Amino acid sequence: MPSFKGFPAGKIRFTRVPATFFTELLPHVDQLGELKVTLYALWRLDRMEGAFRYLCEADFAADETFMQGMGPDAKKALSALRTGLKQAVARGTLLESTVELEAGRTRFYFLNTARGQAAVKAIAAGEWQPSGDPQAPLSLNMERPNIFRLYEEHIGALTPMLSERLGEAEDTYPPTWIEEAFRLAVENNVRRWSYVDAILRRWNEEGRDERPKTHRGDSEKDRRKYVEGEFSDFIEH
Question: What is the chain's percent helix, strand, coil content, to nearest 5?
């Protein structure tokens, strides 16, 4: 067994891992291949840019260092990778979507977050196109105002610390949720990020009712939900 010499001195780049990975996922993962695939996906996706981040089998297989730890030879390593991916998808850690490209049918893997779920729904609805970039072959047609522009338009000037928090939120929630949360903040005249963040966290934990509001009574009921109860602390009466 190769020995580990320790983490190097100086500044080390860390990978963001959701707390629920340790509390709700890790205790139930009992296959080493699945665990390795999951951790690699968390690490690789955290280092990618863009609103929607995904991996395909080739991304895992092209990393020689990673594949060396998946099996004693190339054939067994690839088999272990495919098994690990199937297990991660079956558990719900990763979401899988298959797309027909010029190179053939390709499986894309997204982290099972609100943003990943939105991406899979977009692909199922046909809201995608080939990008022409071999490194990122899939382009999603979901261009919307980013969270920084929404904040500056509706709340005010950005600070470096707040920019980091907004970036984390943009990586976590679908663009439609973020736009709707800002809209609710403006309608209720609560122009604070803490209010928008509270709405997004609630939707992420309890689900968001996306049925169309066709009656005035429904709209008023929806508005009152965000000016009373747990959100009332954010509003000046």
Answer: 55, 10, 35
Residue 193 domain-assigned?
A: yes
Q: Work out the burial of residue 226: count CB atoms within 10 Å of its CB; fewer than 13 is exposed, 13-18 middle, 19 or more buried.
A: buried
Please indicate, yes or no, whether residues 161 and 107 belong to a single structural domain of this protein: no
pTM of the model: 0.68
Instruction: Give the pLDDT confidence score for residue 211 in this predicted structure.
Output: 39
Pair 125, 161 in one domain: no
- Any domain includes 14: no
Angle between helical axes of 175-187 and 114-124 (0-180°, round to 10): 120
The answer to whether 170 and 139 are in contact (CB under 8 A) is: no
Q: Are 152 and 199 in contact (CB under 8 A)?
A: no
Q: How confident is the model at residue 235 (pLDDT cuts 50, 70, 90)?
A: very low
**127 and 160 inside one domain:** no
> Residue 144: its pLDDT value, please?
66
Residues 60 and 37: their CA atoms lie apart, in Å, by 8
Q: Specify whether the CB–CB gap between 137 and 100 falls below 8 A.
A: no
User: What value does the mean pLDDT of the chain take?
Assistant: 85
